[in-house]
Amino acid sequence: MQFLVIGIGRFGKAVAEALADAGHEVVAVDEKEEAVLEVETKVSQALVMDATNERALRTLGIGDFDAVIVATSQNIESSLLITMLAKELGAKKIVAKTATPLQAKVLKRLGADLVVYPERDMGQRVAQLLTSPMIFEFIELSPTHSLVEIVAPEAFAGKTIGETKARTRYGVNIIGIKRRVPEMDEDGKVTYKEETIIIPSAEEEIARGDLLIVIGRDEDIDALKRL
Amino acid sequence: MGTEDLLEEAKFELLAGRYDKAEKFLREVLSDEPNNTDALFNLGVLYEITHQNSKALECFNRVLEIDPKHKEARERAERLSEI
Q1: What is the arrangement of strands in the sheet containing A25-30, beginning at the earlier edge strand?
Q2: ipTM of the complex
């Protein structure tokens, strides 16, 4: 796929590099030359350009990209203007970085299909990590249900999923297991490889330290954390 | 059992997935030799395997205090200290 990343700050650079690493064609632009130099070897094309300039932006052929990522939210005015111009120039999909709900609202009005709040999301993740160190990932599915990755409670270690009675006693469904399996490397040192078991059977035994991917009501997940 | 034997036993138990026993052997080494970087490093790996990341990070940082050039401990500590 083809992507255009406008604004190569910390967020834009991370998005551009991740897309390029995944094998996609990425064009990254920024008005600062030093920012462009930082990614030029990693993306398909890196250009110094003022993306608020409509004529300059037009030369990029916006409509040819599968998505345009507007990552210039430090400068709100630029971010809004670029989103509007990208929409007018036929962008198929616009993803815009934002910091505030008000800015998000305006970006959507101007044509952003998706707005992202990297600082807010990371803030929530850090808070989650600090308050529930057993929880590695957290996805809110609804106001009452979530999907989490949780370290297997000690009470589950050595039991099969069926024996844990996770569903009947605790009201949660274990839909996956992430396991680190010890192995010896070529230098004779102990290391490990990662294994993921999706939809494990009731006979699957849970090992100490496994990460369980669990779906359930928030209160049931909280009860699981206290086991 | 000497230090080397204890470390070998610990690695054997670690590879077998018997983490409690592996931890016991490594702790035994460390009670005699608190600065044994092999024991600290393997304890860090054990904690990583069992998803006890903050304990793992403590072990790798301790290895680095003793041996700042320990490349693997540095790589693991750097990875664990980022989210």
Answers
A1: A45-48, A25-30, A2-6, A67-70, A94-97, A114-116
A2: 0.87
